[in-house]
Design brief:
This protein has a four-stranded antiparallel beta sheet with strand order 3-4-5-6. The chain has a two-stranded antiparallel sheet with strand order 1-2. The longest helix is centred in the middle third of the chain and has 19 residues. The relative contact order is 0.18. It is globular and about 40 Å long. It has one domain. Helix 1 packs antiparallel against helix 2 and helix 2 crosses helix 3. By secondary structure, it is of the alpha+beta class. Helix content is 29%, strand content 21%. The protein is built from four helices and six strands, in the order E-E-H-H-H-E-E-E-E-H.
């Protein structure tokens, strides 16, 4: 099983429909596809309705990722996921950082494909190993105006919590909330 072996994250955002692939069970070993409901799409549109600058868009992205995970939970047992890698034991639906970075990136590409991301570009996931054995993956954005890299990381928290959104350089140094 390789990292990102069967991913949809490298698909051009314009190719997305309302169907998204979600992976879970560590290393994306289980996958399910689901469609964003009309009600979910309306909630997402509302989240992005007043975004006027990059900072507001990053906040909206965090809110939207929570909404998309809630949508996905109707199709996969991911509500059992606990922050980090050890709190959820052997629960079906657990996710590691590979799963979270894949899903968060897929979600952000979907948001971009809907035309809601106007201040950021979605990039390939980033990785870090600040202590050699502490390999960690997270989703990455680039501010379209400043070129600054940002990390979106939902792995730290239990299901339903907003991901952290922070500058790449801060995250790369080993950031933990």
């Amino acid at each position: 099983m390789g990292f990102f072996a069967t991913t949809s994250i490298f698909v051009n955002a314009t190719e997305f429909t309302n169907e998204l692939r979600l992976c879970y069970h560590y290393g994306c070993s289980k996958q399910v596809s689901f469609e964003v409901s009309e009600a979910g799409r309306a909630r997402l549109a509302e989240i992005f309705s007043d975004v006027g600058h990059a900072n507001a868009e990053r906040k909206a992205i965090a809110d939207a990722i929570v909404e998309l995970y809630r949508e996905a939970a109707a199709h996969a047992p991911i509500s059992a996921d606990k922050g980090g890698n050890f709190g959820d034991g052997s629960a079906d639906g657990r996710m590691d950082c590979v799963d979270h970075s894949e899903n968060d990136t897929t979600f952000m590409r979907y948001l971009a494909g809907q035309g809601w991301l106007r201040h950021h570009r979605v990039e390939k996931p980033a990785w870090r190993a600040p202590w050699i054995v502490d390999l960690h993956y997270a989703s990455r954005l680039t501010d379209a105006q400043s070129g600054e890299a940002w990390i979106v990381d939902s792995w730290f928290f239990d299901f339903g919590h907003k991901p952290v959104v922070l500058p790449y350089q801060q995250w790369k140094k080993g950031y933990t909330p």
